[in-house]
Amino acid sequence: MSSETIKIVGGEVYTPSGVLKNATVVVKDGKIAEISTGSVEIPNSQIINAKGLRVVPGGIEMHIHGGGGRDYMEGKEDAFRTAMAAHMQHGTTSLYPTLSSSSVPMIQAAVEVAEKLMKEPGSPMLGLHLEGPYFNPAKAGAQMPEFITPPIKKDYEMILDNTNTIKRWDEAPELPGTAEFGQCCVKHGVLPAIAHTKAEWPDVKLAWDNGFRLATHFYNAMTGFHNVREFKHEGTVESVYAIEDMCVEMIADGIHVPPTILRMIYQIKGVERTALITDALAVSCSDSTVAFDPRVIIEDGVCKLSDRSALAGSIATMDRLIKTCVEKAGIPFSDAVRMSSETPARIMGILDRKGTLEKGKDADIVFYDENVNLKFVMAYGKIIRNDLQ
Questions:
Q1: What are phi and psi of 322, to 5 degrees?
Q2: Model confidence over 57-106: pLDDT tens digits?
Q3: Are 341 and 56 in contact (CB under 8 A)?
Q4: How far, rounded to the nearest angstrom, does the alpha carbon of residue 118 sit from its chain's CA centroid?
């Protein structure tokens, strides 16, 4: 966290009240101290000329497995630091490291690392996301099948009673024990989310009634409209659409969900209920072609299971998500940015300090040029990347 006063000048600053042209953003002690369209005189401040670039809030990553060749499931401090640093070079300024379906000891190892990192001033880590292991085996995808199980009350209660680092936990709501699991999560301030599921309307409604407010990587690893003999049934997708206030996250790499569907999600759910995620694996932000999970192969830049039965996470980065939304899905740049920052902050309950450029919030700031290329990254007032010429 930087204690130096910094003035960002000459940019188009995207704020909740609109775009401010040729505005000045003052950063002090890791916070946004002021945003002004007038002259701001601060002696001895460092000046960064944005040169007309678009100045927007940094990305908040809600679903990410690793990067830079390292995976959070390793449960090692250096793995966490390497993966986080790799994605910060691509416009992510805060994140919730994700564990795929894991054993209790694996979760505990990650919790131990998380507790240390979250105490550090200016840490980009905001908490852990557990993607499983309480999933429907028929929709396991790339999840390790040996860990998948219905909710085990003594396990999740023990874990949640002993740490406050877990901020989100995904589950398939058609499994027995969903109501109790959701209630326990909510009691501990953890967001329960729907994932890897064959849930239909009664299951999704049960989940909603017990605190589930998010659908994980929407469309992926869940059912859509289908027939059972001659009778038609809504799938998980339609059931999530039917609950107006249920939020969704989408892997906006243009591969896991085609651009036409990305645009449809945006049109139906809207900016305030749609978050962008990478679901990135260890091979993202890395020269390596070897995945952490030996079942995963990299083929034509796409992560797949070795038997090619399913996609398996992505190699996307935050800047790519925004570029894909704009260039392939026809989503306005300002809305794509909001879905990468403001919406995740709202979903995760941290909008009071992150997600938008406003006075008093953390100085998590990135610049994009007119072609949606990332040029600058700042987190907590510290410059992470600077490609300005």
A1: -65, -45
A2: 999 999 999 999 999 999 999 999 999 999 999 999 999 999 999 999 99
A3: yes
A4: 17
Residue recorded with tokens 């793995």: 79
Which residues face 27 on adjacent strands?
6, 32
CATH class of 6-56+358-386: mainly beta
Do β-strands 365-368 and 302-305 pair in parallel, antiparallel, or remain unpaired? unpaired
Superfamily holding 59-347 = Metal-dependent hydrolases (3.20.20.140)
- Between CA 11 and CA 313 the distance in angstroms is 35
Higher pLDDT, 231 or 239: 239
Nearest alpha carbon to residue 363 among 342, 381, 377: 381
Q: Is the dihedral of CA 312, 317, 321, 326 positive or negative?
A: negative
Number of other CB atoms surrounding residue 148 within 10 Å: 18
Over residues 175-179, mean pLDDT:
98
Count of C-beta atoms within a 10 Å radius of residue 34 = 14
Q: Give the confidence band of 139 by pLDDT, cuts at 50, 70, 90.
A: very high
The percentage of the chain sitting over the pLDDT mark of 70, rounded to a whole number, equals 99
